[in-house]
Recover the amino acids of this structure.
């Protein structure tokens, strides 16, 4: 069975304005938005393999966008992240690929590059246009069957071809098909997770959105309540709470390199490459708010940023970065709460009494 879809979705005084704007956004639209495709110029497509729970998700830019990246986990699997360094020349991104399949899944980006090349989209380099497609992967090889089944270039091509500006399907699809969380006490006590999306729109017209595939060692914490919404399971189906296990002297039993949270945060603001990098760095705080523990040696936590420049308003990076962190945290919670059980791993919705 194939699932293909896409979505459509300073000075002290300035800091005070930023805080007020963030408060307004949190009250009005942080949790009830159309997701990252609410950002003008952003399309999303999933491809989910039928043979084993895995797949890829492609964020396609209509034209191009300025990009950045923040990589804080200890076990990353990525492509083209050096290109996004503000010290380096290329300042445009055409698409970003998120995939399962561990390092093998990076092949999906090749398919997205081919899809873009067929449409003559990319960075002008002599007689050719070279598509700029950063990518990151998560480890799902131990979930649901043959680990040799993983995303290929064909998957990346089909996900790009499926990309739309519509609402983004969430849960156990695309890059989140085989994602799990709550592995602090070992994979046998984990909970199914997936991919989630959220966006925040201000009255000024500024929009910030995120899409995140969550495959973390840690538990998922709803920042609004401080409660665990998915994570390490007790025998009775309740959540043990990794924070309590840590304080009780517990040690992590998850193996390095077999986890990772990967995502994309986007805005319609016009940003320089350096400010796009700052946006990614601030957005990374959303991981720490919604995952406990986060950025561990066993995770490859990576988040990309995109600025489409479709909004002509004042691009205050303090506001944009702070909202990005909020959107990322919301997307992480949705990834856990929208997931469905797979391969004998229960989802949070199945554990509710």
């Amino acid at each position: 069975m194939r699932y293909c879809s896409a979505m459509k979705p300073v000075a002290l005084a300035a800091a005070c304005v930023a805080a007020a704007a963030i408060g307004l956004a949190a009250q009005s639209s942080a949790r009830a938005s159309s997701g990252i495709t609410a950002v003008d110029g952003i399309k999303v497509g999933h491809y989910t393999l039928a043979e084993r729970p895995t797949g890829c998700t492609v964020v396609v830019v209509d034209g191009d966008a300025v990009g950045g990246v923040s990589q804080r986990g200890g076990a990353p699997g990525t492509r083209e992240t050096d290109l996004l360094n503000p010290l380096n020349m290329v300042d445009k991104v055409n698409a970003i690929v998120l995939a399962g399949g561990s390092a093998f899944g990076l092949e999906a980006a090749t398919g997205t590059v081919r899809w873009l090349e067929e449409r003559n989209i990319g960075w002008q380099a002599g007689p050719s246009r070279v598509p700029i497609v950063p990518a990151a992967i998560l480890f799902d090889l131990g979930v649901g069957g043959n680990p040799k089944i993983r995303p290929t270039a064909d998957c990346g091509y089909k996900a790009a071809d499926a990309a739309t500006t519509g609402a983004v399907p969430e849960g156990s699809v695309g890059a989140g098909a085989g994602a799990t969380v709550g592995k602090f006490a070992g994979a046998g006590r984990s909970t199914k997770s997936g991919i989630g999306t959220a966006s925040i729109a201000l009255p000024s017209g500024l929009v910030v959105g995120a899409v995140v595939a969550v495959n973390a060692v840690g538990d998922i914490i709803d920042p609004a309540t401080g409660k665990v919404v998915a994570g390490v399971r007790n025998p009775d189906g309740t959540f043990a709470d990794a924070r309590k296990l840590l304080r009780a002297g517990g040690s992590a039993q998850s193996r390095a390199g077999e986890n990772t949270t990967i995502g994309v945060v986007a805005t319609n603001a016009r940003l320089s490459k350096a400010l796009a990098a700052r946006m990614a760095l601030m957005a990374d705080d959303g991981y720490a708010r919604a995952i406990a523990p986060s950025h561990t040696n066993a995770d490859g936590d990576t988040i990309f940023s995109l600025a489409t420049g479709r909004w002509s308003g004042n691009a205050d990076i303090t506001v944009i970065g702070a909202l990005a962190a909020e959107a990322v945290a919301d997307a992480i919670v949705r990834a856990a709460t929208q997931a469905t059980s797979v391969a004998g791993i229960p989802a949070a919705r199945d554990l509710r009494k």
